[in-house]
Amino acid sequence: xxxxxxxxxxxxxxxxxxxxxxxxxxxxxxxxxxxxxxxxxxxxxxxxxxxxxxxxxxxxxxxxxxxxxxxxxxxxxxxxxxxxxxxxxxxxxxxxxxxxxxxxxxxxxxxxxxxxxxxxxxxxxxxxxxxxxxxxxxxxxxxxxxxxxxxxxxxxxxxxxxxxxxxxxxxxxxxxxxxxxxxxxxxxxxxxxxxxxxxxxxxxxxxxxxxxxxxxxxxxxxxx
Amino acid sequence: xxxxxxxxxxxxxxxxxxxxxxxxxxxxxxxxxxxxxxxxxxxxxxxxxxxxxxxxxxxxxxxxxxxxxxxxxxxxxxxxxxxxxxxxxxxxxxxxxxxxx
Lengths: 224, 101
Known about the structure:
The complex is a heterodimer of chains A (about 220) and B (about 100). Chain A has about 220 residues and is mostly helical. Chain A has nine helices and one strand; from the N terminus they run E-H-H-H-H-H-H-H-H-H. Chain B is of the alpha+beta class and about 100 residues long. At the A-B interface, strand 1, helix 1, helix 2 and helix 6 of A face strand 1, helix 1, strand 2, helix 2 and helix 4 of B.
């Protein structure tokens, strides 16, 4: 079972790929151990992500379509009640968090024992609750939610913080999720600055397209 | 002339696929186990390839394979045995010696 592997022999084995047991150099072994550990950790974090992304795609699209409808159809209501953004997005975000927790918890149980799954799930949950709390508290503490004049800037700040959350989560798991974060920011800020009254509708469509594309990519990568 | 002292690397573990399987399993805390599908997805292996390597590790007594039903669907669980944990720890220690760490 054990082979004497003098250091020199082990290095020469690189030139002998057919010799399977020794075809791994010590450096390659160490790298394989570290990369496997990091890949496994990030896969645990990503349990259920493809489905969760689709849920958030639906939620953000409903949110922006509602914003567009309220601004366009009920503009008097929107100007009289500038605080309507808070309950609208608050309700959607709470529904999203509950749905994501259930999906993530079920998906992670397909990977590992409940204790391991819970440990990874708790880290992800804490991360996203922190991002959500920041997206909520930063505008609230700045007085933006209750300031009618400034309320329109709130969405920009919230999207910025959420996009940053995706970028950081991507650095913890899969870099492609960081790109999704940049895409989310672009899907909001570009229409916001250039599309006038139809900005929210365009953002809704772009977000949905972006998130569906990301979910398809994740599923193709073997992440459910 | 000074001869190099040979270092023992466990040849069952010292193989690209089996090394990664063992790494996944021993990285789980305590007696935790992983599903076959998680290992397969993570390592990007075909079912046949994974099964061959799992059998070799099981024959060496390094892991234990358990089949269960969950919601009427079969699920295969893999866990490292205490022998497997010890073998991997020895392998890692020897690897560090080889690399002079």
